[in-house]
Amino acid sequence: MKNLIKNLISGFLSIFIFLAPKNRAVILMYHSVGRNEIPSTVSPKNFAKQMAYLKEKQYQVISLANLADILEKKQPWPTKAVVLSFDDGYADNFIFAWPILWQYNFPATIFLTAGTIGGEKIKKTGERLPMLAWPEIEKMQKSGLVDFQPHTQSHPRLSEISQAEAQKEITESQAVIKEHLGGEAQFFAYPYGVYNQSIIDILKANGFIAALTVSRGLVKQESQLFELPRMAVSLKTSLAQFKSKLNFGF
Ligand SMILES: [Zn+2]
């Protein structure tokens, strides 16, 4: 029922697409792209439809680094800017999402839970999802299209552990990625979207330039770099809802 109402509102809003605000970007948040029924998952079929829609409607899919440059006023705002982000590092991102990203030449950022690389994640539903391993990560990174950024070692709620533990979770995951892939790991996604000022301070002290939350909304010039909002795409997201997420952050 709730989903039906959302669909109706999204359908209605789509009439007013020409009113969509300018100088805005949307960061889409994905998790698993696969054939499971976990609420945060998007099916390969829906993911393909969503990417085809971005292509068809000429959205400009830009990298997170590019968005950070725009926010730091080093680059102008493109029209219809979209950033693709994937949290946790599920192996199905390589199997189902990667071929489509490659097909459309869409950049994306995958936030890795460093402690589970090559392993599996047991979801609340009891399902066990395999995680990306280094050979797949390296293959995607070498394409220049996908960058990998830290999402802690063990995916804790960072505000509920000690400052020292939080520091360790952040810097160790950053170090693991740097060690394997080289370059700088400068972007972070807060597990569960949980953070506070001391977590932001740790990130700043360790060379990060931006961090992503799970608060919904569009990114604007005045958005805080360490509190960037995202729009979640999940199992029940219809194409009408996907459109209103893109244009209105609803
Ligand atoms: Zn996560």
UniProtKB/TrEMBL annotation:
One of its GO terms (molecular function) is hydrolase activity, acting on carbon-nitrogen (but not peptide) bonds. This is NodB homology domain-containing protein. Residues 80-250 form the NodB homology domain. InterPro entries: Glyco_hydro/deAcase_b/a-brl, NODB_dom, Polysacch_Deacetylase. GO terms for biological process: carbohydrate metabolic process. It comes from the Bacteria. SUPFAM superfamilies: Glycoside hydrolase/deacetylase (SSF88713). One of its GO terms (cellular component) is extracellular region. Its main location: secreted. It is found in: Secreted. Keywords: Signal. PANTHER family: POLY-BETA-1,6-N-ACETYL-D-GLUCOSAMINE N-DEACETYLASE, PTHR34216.
